[in-house]
Amino acid sequence: MEVEIEANWKNILKDEFEKPYFESLIGFVKSEYKNHDCYPKGSDIFNAFEFCPFDETKVVILGQDPYHGPGQAHGLSFSVPKGISIPPSLSNIYKELKDDLDVQPYSHGNLEAWARQGVLLLNATLTVRAHEAGSHQNKGWEIFTDEVIKKLSQGKENVIFLLWGGFAKKKSKLIDSSKHHILTSGHPSPLSANRGYWFGNKHFSKVNKLLQEQGDIPIQW
């Protein structure tokens, strides 16, 4: 089946698009978008890949589900378009960024600039029904995005994986830790952050230190 995805990634993942689970997944997604309000809009579903090709990926930030409120999701984990209120988890990400690197975060919630510097902002599930968190889980997206993580692990070296929260941490088994970096912490959601599991992880400075040590350009967070 023909999937509109960035050419670099399309070549890497072409075998996945022919598998029965993916055919079934696309059928489900098409039906959902036809019969319900779903997010993100169809042209934004693969934005994480569009803005951050395989060859340019240096960092992976793994989310679980797209935002399910109107106008929020646009295909990048934790990110929202300009003009949309900054969600609580992203607000906590910005607070940690300010504490860690003393940089003033964006006044908006659009993280596209991170993606264009080699940060793959990947959700495990790429679509959701409006106002129904987790409604498109266990339909095949996780099989696909697990394969994305495996391809990165197998085909690259020195990628820095940021695994925030219990769900993301489980993905560490897909990553070859002998040739990649894995940084873990609690999730930036208020529930986790306010219990002391998020703030102070200093992941942003740690990422840039690792990138510099291996001769890469640090991220302008």
From TrEMBL:
One term of GO molecular function: uracil DNA N-glycosylase activity
Signal peptide: none
Keyword Hydrolase: yes
EC number: 3.2.2.27
PROSITE patterns xref list: U_DNA_GLYCOSYLASE (PS00130)
Catalytic residues of the enzyme: D65
Top-level taxonomic group: Bacteria
Subcellular location as annotated: Cytoplasm
Domain (Uracil-DNA glycosylase-like) ranges: 50-211
The entry's keywords: Cytoplasm, DNA damage, DNA repair, Glycosidase, Hydrolase
Predominant localisation class: cytoplasm
Functional summary from the UniProt entry: Excises uracil residues from the DNA which can arise as a result of misincorporation of dUMP residues by DNA polymerase or due to deamination of cytosine.
Name of the protein in its database record: Uracil-DNA glycosylase
Organism annotation: Psychroflexus salinarum
